[in-house]
Structure formats: C-alpha cells, structure tokens
Amino acid sequence: MGATKLNIFEFHATIERYHTIQNPISEEKLDLAMRYCGIRDGMRILDVGSGKGWLLRQLASRFDIHITGLEIYPTFAAEARRLAAAENLESRIQIVEGPALEFHPEPASFDVVMCIGAAFALDGFEPALDWMSHAAKRGGAIALGEVFAKELPYPPEIPRGGRADLDYPERSLLTTVETMRARGLPLRGLIEGSVDDWDRYHSLHWQAGMDWALENPGHPDVAKLTDPAGMRLDILDRRYCGWAIFVARNGLD
Ligand SMILES: C[S@@+](CC[C@H](N)C(=O)[O-])C[C@H]1O[C@@H](n2cnc3c(N)ncnc32)[C@H](O)[C@@H]1O
Q: Is 49 touching ligand 1 by the criterion CB < 6 Å?
C-alpha cells in the first residue's frame, strides 16, 4: 500500500522540524519583546500557541515564574515538554495540550498574556485581543505577534484568499495599534520582524520540506513540500506583509 498524505499536524511538524522559533523574528527581538512586558519573579504568564516552547524556556530559565503554554499540536507539545525537562524547568512550565479556546482562564489571572503568531487560535486578531485582555490582570501586559499590511491596497500579483492561517491582512500597522488602543490596550512596545527574519523563517521551511522530500521519494506530498506556494509560504510575504510583536498595557488605570 502506498504512503498516505500528511495530515495537517504532520505537515506542520514536518516543515517546522528545524525551527526553534516558529515565527519571522529573531531571538534578540523576542528577548526585547519580553523586556517590554516587564517580566519579574513571581509572575504568572500565559502563552497561547506556544509551539516548541523556546520562549517559555528562555523566560523560565531567567525568572522564578509560572508559565502555562497552550498548544494544539501533540508533536510540538511533546517537544516543548521534553526540552523543558532537559533543562530542569518542568516545575515552572506547564503545557496544556488542546485548542486554546477550550482553556478558560480565570478573569485577570495572568500578569502577562502572550500570543506570538497564533491569533487565529483565538478566532483572529480582535477576538484574540478581547480574550487576552480578559485573562490578563489590569495593568498587566499583552504581547501579540501578528501580521499587518505594509501597503494597501495590495498589488494585483498578491493572491487573495484561500490561505487558512496567514491570509494577507487588510490592517495596517497604524490600524493595528489604534484598534488595540480602542480596546483599552495602549502600546508600550513594538518590535518588527525584518526581511532577514522572514527569509530565515521561510528558508528553514523550504529546507525542511526539501530534505523530507528527499527522504521520502514517491510520497504523494513531495510536490507540495518542494514548492513554496504549495506550502503556502509565499516569497512575497516579506515585501507586502509585515509581522510585529505589539506589546500593550492592559488598561490605563
Ligand atoms: C506560528 S506558530 C508559533 C509558535 C510559537 N509561539 C513561536 O513563536 O515559536 C503557531 C502555533 O500555534 C499552534 N496552534 C494552532 N492552532 C492552535 C489552537 N487552536 N490552539 C492552540 N495552539 C494552536 C500551532 O500548533 C503552532 O505551534
């Protein structure tokens, strides 16, 4: 019997097998974003869509904090737990496996709520802001890693629609910040991914896809995994679609 197509979980685990950070951003910039969040010993932190948990481990290795990561993909959740254990950080890091929306935080129960590249797990940008703001303490921090349009309207060469989790947004950087402020989330830090960050992020996808295709000749997903468009990882992303971490204070009172 021939090999069957990869399901959505296997597909993502395959193309992100070389990533430690699963977003178009560098370690240094993520570090800066966390400094803008004002993390200190004793805090409770929530990370929605925590992936392999690089950020959780960085924070837990530096601060005496309790971090909860929400992650739907069993492969990533298992990897995050394994790496936390390897660094003796299990007492500070808890990974909750499953859809983020099935996790119901007590209102105002976390000092910092982060969602770095997974707003779709909370039904999109604006619902994510409301969900995160509800979970965070007043005066606490929200860190949202999210795409925005660098140029509107998009030129005709940009394919519209059909991309499940990273369609080109119709929201500029300014609109993003203003929407947050209108919801009681004034900006206190902004860190934008660069073209280099996008290139590094997608290059790892392409290398993983190609290596996997070479290891699995004849598999029905080979064509998809050796074609950036098939992987929905467009080489135009970096030019028209920005990505930034928006750090906001939860309320001004
Ligand atoms: C772009 S990755 C970002 C991972 C991590 N935050 C990072 O920066 O390295 C998005 C993550 O969200 C997870 N995810 C997707 N849908 C989810 C859901 N409904 N609930 C929880 N996690 C989800 C994916 O499995 C993936 O690990």
A: yes
Q: Is the CB of 74 under 6 A from ligand 1?
A: no
Find the 253 Cα to ligand 1 centroid distance in Å: 31
User: Is position 159 within any domain?
Assistant: no
Is the residue at 158 inside a domain?
A: no
pLDDT band, residue 151 (cuts 50/70/90) = confident
72 lines ligand 1 (CB under 6 A): yes
Q: Which domain holds residue 195?
A: 8-12+23-153+166-249
For residue 242, is it within any domain? yes
Within a domain: 118: yes
* Residue 118 near ligand 1, beta carbon < 6 Å: yes
Distance from residue 30's CA to the centre of ligand 1 (Å): 16
Average the pLDDT over 49-76 and give the result: 97
Peptide bond into 153 cis (omega under 30): yes
Position in ligand 1 atom list of the atom nearest CA 20: 9
What angle, rounded to 10 degrees, do the helices at 195-215 and 8-15 form?
110
Domain count, the chain: 1
Tell me: the pLDDT tens digits for 38-48? 999 999 999 99
Token pair of 120 as six digits: 């779709």
CATH code assigned at 130: 3.40.50.150
B/e letters for 48-70, b = 16+ CB within 10 Å, e = fewer, are bbbbbbbbbbbbbeebebbbbbb
